[in-house]
């Protein structure tokens, strides 16, 4: 059950990022949606959606790795190899 919730937690921001990419692509190729005033506004909204989705996914992964202490182990291996 927890894995399903975690998968949905990552799936929804992924969809938001995909929508952001689509809005940016459509703004570049002059496929204008009437809900936005200008194509520049459409591109900006798409960019914000894209960044928000990627930031959430990245933050989720970093939080999980810190919780399981995986980042500290990797940093120790790098220091020992030098």
TrEMBL record:
The chain crosses the membrane at residues 41-62. It holds the Pfam family DUF2627. InterPro entries: Uncharacterised_YqzF (IPR020138). It comes from Virgibacillus salarius. This is DUF2627 domain-containing protein. Keywords: Membrane, Transmembrane, Transmembrane helix. It comes from the Bacteria. The keyword Membrane applies.
